[in-house]
Amino acid sequence: MLDNLGARFQDIFKKVRGHGKLSESNIKEALREVKMSLLEADVNYKVVKDFIKKIQDKAIGTEVVTGINPGQQFIKIVNDELVELLGGTNSRLTKGVRNPTVIMLAGLQGAGKTTFAAKLSNYLKKTGERPYMISADVYRPAAMKQLEVLGKQIDVPVYFEEGSKDAVGICERGLEKAKEANATYLIIDTAGRLHIDEHLMEELKDIKKTVRPQEILLVVDAMIGQDAVNLAESFNNALNIDGVILTKFDGDTRGGAALSIKSVVGKSIKFVGTGEKISDLELFHPERIASRILGMGDVVSLVEKAQEAINEDDAKSLEEKIRTQQFDLDDFLKQLQNIKKLGPLGSILKMLPGVGQIGDLAPAEKEMKKVEAIIQSMTKEERKKPEILKASRKQRIAKGSGTDVSDVNKLLKQFEQMKDMMKMFSSGKFPNIPGMRGK
Ligand code: GDP
């Protein structure tokens, strides 16, 4: 999502940086390109026009501060406006004074409401809350069961009435149950339709009247492009929503919706869904998304992801092992698995500054899988002391892991080199790496 736009912006900025001084015609040219790339990314035309006008006013009116590269200054202006366009600062979920804070979800069928209900519950649970869910989707036959299964996976209770068609009644009774259970948040999954219709809106309004939610969040599939903006407008007119959730942000659509919703509808995006797994949820931080688009990286999100995936005890025990030179292939395997927990390599690298566009990472990922399979085919003893491996065992391991003996040998050699490096680091004798200032 937003990859193409990122690539275009980075090209434009490269050109802008090349100019020692920014003249009015340089700026005009750059702005024309910014405009084209936003339109290509499927951003609403009116939004683009306003955006360009704001940048133009600022860029042309600004005195070039001495000591600062004018190109950088231009990028800063675009960055600030982009953050504003995306919704300013990150808008968090409301927390009501009384428990539970009720969050009602709305959206079309297939948008990802049920999945998001579970993702949000999981997120809240991790922040120390006690979530509770209600399935009031009385139309899609499998919806209640789906939420029940997801609830079990994350150990969050789900209230539903199988076979019932009384969505409002389900919500009323579910709310009582959530109070009895002393829940701090109640998330209500409602029914969707393939298209907006009167009946759906009436039902949602009835639920709203009955449960008086502190927040109504509209769940929208980001893949539907510009329609997402129209949809958000219709739901907002009927229900006065509090925020938007964009799902399927991992898809490869152009992402213009993300950039248009706040301006057109006036409501912020609060979360984005980035995959089908329950953990595939990110808070929507306008500043971070803007930096990602402008190729400045998103180190903060990366660090947060790493903190989630790697626990501190593991990190300490790893450090101890490196220091005492007991790092073995089992530890190596664990590290590989930690990297995998962060997500696909491509999406990790994209968060680093300067790595805006990257080539095909499939070979690197394949290589990681190979190494994992090889280590998993070894016995515990062999993982601790790979030097005991004889040719016949290497052949068995290659067969067991679907690789060649040469792959096994390559891994063992790399592992030996790695251990040598660690030995040097832990003894304080740093190798003389070209390009680094050695002692
Ligand atoms: P609902 O009808 O609105 O309740 O939609 P569901 O929660 O059943 O989701 C519809 C489909 O979209 C399912 O196959 C989900 O796995 C998938 N889905 C939901 N959120 C995401 C997301 O963020 N990324 C991707 N790739 N798929 C998603």
Automatic annotation (TrEMBL):
Pfam families membership: SRP54 (PF00448), SRP54_N (PF02881), SRP_SPB (PF02978)
Top EC class of this enzyme: hydrolase
Enzyme Commission numbers on file: 3.6.5.4
Positions of GTP binding: 107-114, 189-193, 247-250
A molecular function GO annotation: 7S RNA binding
Keywords: Cytoplasm, GTP-binding, Hydrolase, Nucleotide-binding, Ribonucleoprotein, RNA-binding, Signal recognition particle
Keyword Nucleus assigned: no
Domain SRP54-type proteins GTP-binding: 100-295
Swiss-Prot/TrEMBL catalytic activity: GTP + H2O = GDP + phosphate + H(+)
Gene Ontology biological process: SRP-dependent cotranslational protein targeting to membrane
Occurrences of domain AAA+ ATPase (ranges): 99-300
A GO-annotated cellular component: signal recognition particle
Record-linked InterPro entries: AAA+_ATPase, P-loop_NTPase, Signal_recog_part_SRP54_M_sf, Signal_recog_particl_SRP54_hlx, Signal_recog_particle_SRP54_M, SRP, SRP54, SRP54_GTPase_dom
Family named by the database record: Belongs to the GTP-binding SRP family. SRP54 subfamily.
Function statement: Involved in targeting and insertion of nascent membrane proteins into the cytoplasmic membrane. Binds to the hydrophobic signal sequence of the ribosome-nascent chain (RNC) as it emerges from the ribosomes. The SRP-RNC complex is then targeted to the cytoplasmic membrane where it interacts with the SRP receptor FtsY.
Record text about domains: Composed of three domains: the N-terminal N domain, which is responsible for interactions with the ribosome, the central G domain, which binds GTP, and the C-terminal M domain, which binds the RNA and the signal sequence of the RNC.
Quaternary structure, from the entry: Part of the signal recognition particle protein translocation system, which is composed of SRP and FtsY.
Protein name stated in the entry: Signal recognition particle protein
Originating organism: Cetobacterium ceti
